[in-house]
Amino acid sequence: MAIDKLIEDIISLRTKKQALEAELRPIASQLKELEETVVNEFLSRQIQNLKQFNHTIFVSRDLSVRSVDGNVAPLISHLLKTEMHDLLNVNWSTIKAFVKEKMYDPQSDSWEMNPSKLPADFSAAIDMREYHRLNVRKS
Predict the structure, then answer these.
(1) Which one, of 102, 79, 99, lies nearest residue 91 by Cα?
(2) CA dihedral angle for residue 80, residue 82, residue 84, residue 89, rounded to 10 degrees
(3) CA distances from 79 to 73, 74, 86, 92, 107 (A)
(4) Cβ-based neighbours of 34, under 8 Å, separated by 6 or more
């Protein structure tokens, strides 16, 4: 298949995807509002589940946990002191940004894959792979 045809297909599919996502946004917003209303009704009426229109509707209960005011230092300190360090997760986006910053080459105004620019123990602890993906924007 010719590259022109492939590019035409990619642009066509991305355009369709964007149109469908735009169509879906107000539906998702309306659905969120309706679901919040029904959850409140179920809770006020103490309804656990309801079967209608060949569907079972039910409310599940969950928990949200965050650090106070976004300050994670006291939480991290507590987890390390109590040997609960297995609860700590790595933020890969931040690590990727750090790595790209360390590998930045001012001459090319870009980053270059060069693990020697990283601390040796850090470099040994991560798996780095360069990859490419196709991006399309309307011009």
Answers:
(1) 99
(2) -30
(3) 10, 9, 8, 20, 43
(4) none
The total of other beta-carbon atoms located within 10 Å of residue 138's CB is: 7
Q: Which amino acid is at 32?
A: K
- Which band of pLDDT confidence, cut at 50, 70 and 90, is reported for residue 21? very high
Q: For 26-35, what is each residue's pLDDT tens digit?
A: 999 999 999 9
> CA-based diameter of the chain, in Å?
67
Query: With a threshold of 0.90, does the pTM exceed it?
Result: no
User: What own/partner pairs with CB < 8 Å and gap ≥ 24 does 24-29 have?
Assistant: none
